[in-house]
Amino acid sequence: MSRTTDEKLVELRQLFPDYDSAGLLDVLVSCDGSLKRTKLLLGATSEGEPEPRTKRFKSQQTLSRFVKDTRVAATTVMSRSSKPIALHTKVEIETALKYCTYHTNVLPEDLAERLLQVTLNDPHYKATEFWLFGKKCTSNHLSRIFLPTTRPDALYYNGKQVTDYGVYCDEMMVTQVLIEDIVNEALSQRVRLPFQTKSDRWQAQAALSNKYERDSNLDWHSDRLTNIGPHPIIASLSLGFSREFRVRKTYPSDSQIYSIKPQHNSLLIMHAGFQEEYKHCVPLLPTRSRISTEDLHPTAGARRINITYRNYLIKDAIFCKLCGAPMDLRRMFKDPEKRGKYFYQCSKSYTEQNGFNEGNECKGFSYANFDNDPPLTDNEDHCSSWLDEDDIEPRAHSGTVRQAEA
Predict the structure, then answer these.
(1) Which GO terms describe its biological process (predicted)?
(2) Looking at residue 30, what DSSP letter applies?
(3) How much is the CA Rg of the chain, to the nearest whole Å?
């Protein structure tokens, strides 16, 4: 008889008592509910016992190194349905995902082709480094940040100041102008959420680009709100091969998964509310034999370029009072009674000491109040909060929830 998720979590908590329960659930979900794969990913031996802590943190490795089946990494997860529901048309996408709009053939064909070739041939894309339960890992897709100027204001991304970036080429600048028109036309037909940009016109100040080779993927995540702010609007341009893009509600973690395959030269606008309400990923491609030659892009083959144009609402970094490291802006969602509250948490999670990566998590924390300058408050009752109008679970717990004023 198959074991329930709760039963698996009980065993994981016994094996890994130092790990956060919500984090254990996220890893279990990304491993398709496999208890064995989750144990191996977290560093357990083949017998199921955790290895000594110092043995597991000796060197930097890729995430797939910790999973025997390298195709596990965020390709499929447990859901209410046995498999993702495919969304093929604009109507299907926008009906199922209330905070998305989908637009095809957004650039002139020759501009899309030139931009694709420029980014494919750019040698400066790099793998992203990140921490997972004390392990320093690298992504198996490549990324690069582009800015329209050579002298930008200080910009922080994933807890670090951006010093290595590319400057917009002519194609990227023209593309931004065209995309801004599409985004603003879409915004004119939507209800404004309380914390999205107050400007009459949405404008991007930077572009984050991801390059996916045939064997690349991107794990489940929501984009950090730290600089793009609450209720951000991100315009995601797809070029080259049409890769699957999966989306699910952030809570509960076993929510139905939806699958989209954005076409070459298409734009998926993740509107205000998307990052708060959804997680997304780019799963691994199926095996080579299952990819039709007709599906390959004539220039990119099985490679995909994704360029996300972003509006940075919060330009000044918030630094931790305890350690001085930059702080990350997040929104509570796990506890229904606190769901919707925004807060700042220190981004300093782990440091290298004595040759090992040992946990040195900083406890720096503050509630966020976007009416303040800086946007901080120590009073939970004064923190900024927002709930999706369809989210009835917190209301069922508390009866009433203070909504942020528009």
Answers:
(1) DNA alkylation repair
(2) H
(3) 21
Per-domain boundaries in the chain: 5-71, 85-310, 327-398
| Region 85-310: CATH code | 2.60.120.590
Helix (H) or strand (E) holding 195: none
At 20, give phi and psi (nearest 5°): -65, 135
Task: State in Å, rounded, how far the first CA of the chain is from the last one.
Answer: 51
Determine whether 123 is exposed, middle or buried from the number of CB atoms within 10 Å of its CB (0-12, 13-18, 19+).
Answer: exposed
Retrieve residue 312's tokens.
Answer: 């940075």
Please report, for residues 36, 70, 88, 180, the alpha-carbon distance to residue 40 in angstroms, rounded to integers and kept in the order given: 6, 12, 36, 45
Tokens of 97: 């995902």
In whole angstroms, give the CA distance from residue 293 to residue 40: 36
Answer yes or no: are the C-beta atoms of 102 and 93 closer than 8 Å.
Answer: yes
pTM for this predicted structure? 0.77
Q: What is the DSSP string of 56-80?
A: HTSS-EEGGGG-SSGGGTTS----S
> Nearest 5°: phi and psi at 348?
-80, 100
Pair 268, 186: CB distance under 8 Å: no
What is the distance between the alpha carbons of residues 7 and 268, in angstroms, rounded to a whole number?
A: 38
Q: How far apart are CA 14 and CA 114, in angstroms?
A: 54
Measured from the Cβ of residue 169, the count of other Cβ atoms closer than 10 Å reads: 15
DSSP tag of 44: B
Cβ–Cβ under 8 Å, residues 264 and 239: yes
- Determine the residue type at 394: P
The type of residue at 152 is P
H helices of 75-208, in order, are: 90-96, 109-120, 170-187
